[in-house]
Design a protein that fits this description.
CATH architecture: Up-down Bundle
CATH topology: Growth Hormone, Chain: A
CATH class: Mainly Alpha
Radius of gyration: 22 Å
Strand content: under 5%
Structural class: mainly alpha
Number of strands: 6
Number of domains: 1
Oligomer: single chain
Order of helices and strands: HHHHHHHEEHHHHHEEHHHHEEHHHH
Helix content: over 70%
Strand order of the largest sheet: 1-2
Shape: globular
């Protein structure tokens, strides 16, 4: 692919040509989601290797897994603010560089401290990509299919998770275990991280070819460049009108978007929409999904499955997740965001309750570990995959869709910064506490905790979340 090809595609006069260009550019942006998923999921199969290499305890391993999320929180918060100053495209390029550096460094690390440093760098890349990719897609896509294009971001995230699970499974299988030597004298777990170098480098190169967000260009006072980009996206005839609509939606004094815009000047309080965004971001994590993504191998081994079987279960869960996201792509711009959210919440609440009860009723062997019967194991496995299905048909993609579109043009970057900070902070808390919960209160009560928040999310959606289907970004309320 070359810049010449992209430009030629953009200059075709028909609506179909513009749509093709928008889809192409959106797909490039979603590679950030793929890397977000891969970088989050690759840790899943490396934990035994990390424990062996760095002599970590369960708490230490939990921190090694969760430490990336501190970088994610910082990356999301800083990216949301910096993108209002330097642009969405530039922040995505920086995130690609962080992915490349982190993938190499995590695999080559010779100590826990060095490993943590590179994982934090990767976390910054993940955090930046997590908020910038959906924001960028929302800001270039027309409202009639904005939800579908932004949902592709979640397909990319899950695809990244799936490829991470699959490559972990294949590498560990070829080496014998994650701790065994794989190639060139390096342990398998190190190669699991190095696989990411290929998509990260591709992401960096392709980002150089895409245009900047037209809404950022308008907010930055770059009128000619904004109209040119709008012409490439929507056609020359529509470009001037769209520019005026975007310009009219910004602050009356046309000041550059900033964090203090989140405060309503009439009440001097944080705008209600910001609290709704924070609620969506936090609840998406408190239902416990990343316990499955980050600790799936450990979880299934703790109830009697082998390492190989546990890694294979992760692969199956990844396929289920992709299937769920594809269903959502077909529905999100037809029935809307809000119905999918509360239906997903109800499904998660039910399946998490079943998992919790199954683990709570299971026998405990002489080593203090759960000993599931074949029937209990089947119920737990089916329920867990149904839970993953409900999450990825609802909260997984739709939270990011809504965060990318629910804020007005003036506060989108700042709103994403704050919501992203809370989302990754909650992610860190859940991820860090799971190994502790596993060793103290057990899986039954732990999953009961996640089920409780799934029930809470039903009422939160019904009471506080407003539908955004079909609404232009310029018409989003403050």
């Amino acid at each position: 692919m070359s810049s010449v090809n992209i430009t030629a595609e953009a200059e075709l006069p028909s609506e179909q040509a513009n749509t093709a260009f928008i889809i192409l550019v959106s797909c490039i942006a979603t590679i950030g989601g793929f890397l977000f998923g891969f970088d989050s999921g690759v840790i899943n199969g490396t934990q035994k290797g990390l424990e062996s290499a760095f002599n970590s305890s369960s708490v230490g391993t939990g921190f090694n897994v969760a430490v990336m999320l501190l970088g994610c929180a910082a990356g999301a918060f800083c990216a949301g603010s910096l993108a209002d100053r330097f642009g969405r495209k530039k922040l995505l390029i920086v995130s690609a560089l962080f992915f490349i550096i982190s993938a190499w460094g995590s695999g080559i690390a010779g100590s826990a401290g060095i490993f943590i440093f590179y994982r934090v760098l990767g976390g910054i890349g993940v955090g930046a990509a997590s908020v910038m990719a959906p924001a960028y897609i929302s800001e270039i896509a027309p409202s009639e299919y904005r939800g579908r294009l932004t949902t592709v971001q979640q397909v990319a995230i899950i695809s990244g998770l799936f490829i991470a699970f699959l490559s972990n499974y294949l590498i560990a299988g070829a080496a014998g275990s994650s701790e065994s030597e794989f190639m060139l004298g390096y342990a398998a777990w190190r190669w699991m991280f190095w696989v990411e170098l290929m998509p990260a480098t591709l992401f960096f190169v392709l980002l150089l070819l895409i245009p900047e967000s037209p809404r950022f260009l308008v907010a930055s006072g770059k009128k000619d460049e904004a109209i040119s980009t709008l012409g490439r996206l929507y056609g020359t005839n529509a470009a001037q009108q769209k520019y005026q609509e975007i310009d009219s939606s910004l602050a009356a004094d046309h000041h550059r978007p900033q964090l203090k815009d989140l405060i309503d000047p009439t009440t001097s309080k944080v705008r209600r929409i910001v609290w709704v965004g924070i609620g969506l971001a936090v609840l998406q994590q408190l239902v416990g999904i990343n316990v499955v993504f980050y600790y799936g191998a450990v979880l299934w081994q703790s109830v009697g499955f082998s390492e190989s079987d546990s890694l294979l279960i992760n692969v199956i869960s990844g396929l289920v997740s992709i299937g769920a996201c594809l269903i959502t792509i077909g529905l999100i711009d037809r029935i809307g965001r809000k119905p999918l959210l509360w239906i997903g919440s109800a499904g998660m609440a039910l399946t998490l309750t079943i998992i919790s009860v199954t683990f709570a009723m299971a026998a405990i062997n002489s080593d203090g570990e759960l000993n599931l019967t074949d029937a209990e194991g089947l119920v737990a496995l089916v329920s867990a995959n149904l839970y993953v299905f409900f999450f990825n048909a609802s909260w997984g993609p739709i939270m990011w869709v809504m965060l990318g579109e629910m804020f007005s043009n003036q506060i989108r970057g700042s709103g994403l910064a704050v919501a992203g900070l809370f989302q990754w902070g909650a992610n860190f808390a859940i991820t860090m506490t799971f190994p502790i919960f596993l060793g103290s209160i057990g899986l039954g009560l732990t999953y009961g905790f996640y089920a409780a928040f799934a029930f809470i999310s039903i009422f939160f959606v019904l009471k506080y979340v407003n539908e955004t289907k079909g609404i232009e970004l310029e018409d989003m309320p403050d």
